[in-house]
Amino acid sequence: MKTGQIVIALWLCLILITAVSANPNPLKIIEVYQQQGASRTDANRGKQLWETDTEGRRCTSCHGDSPSNNGSHIKTKKLIKPMALSVNPERYQDDKKIEKWFLRNCKWTFGRECNVQEKADILTWLSSQ
Question: For the stretch 3-19, what's the b/e string if a residue is b when 16 or more beta carbons lie within 10 angstroms of its beta carbon?
Fold first, then answer.
């Protein structure tokens, strides 16, 4: 292999490594949920939860009907960036933040904490968007 070919090969490897490391994987936290008791995840169940109405509250109340678009907080009107992995992968880089927002939003929306199955299903659906 000539020097130029080696440089090109190394450059392509660097690009691939950068792309892979920059792509957050929400499935890591889904694996944690499965270790905690979640069974096989289901994007359809996740979508149904996203659209579930509990006493006039739904995930869509703040996040909007499409997770690919911006939403706004129902009370403060503060901008909420898209939830879809394809549009906003930064949302899925910090497991602690994911847990924090599930805790707050499930309590507000459903009046209770979401269980690990529900969280896994919602993340499965959001990661497919």
Answer: eeeeeeeeeeeeeeeee
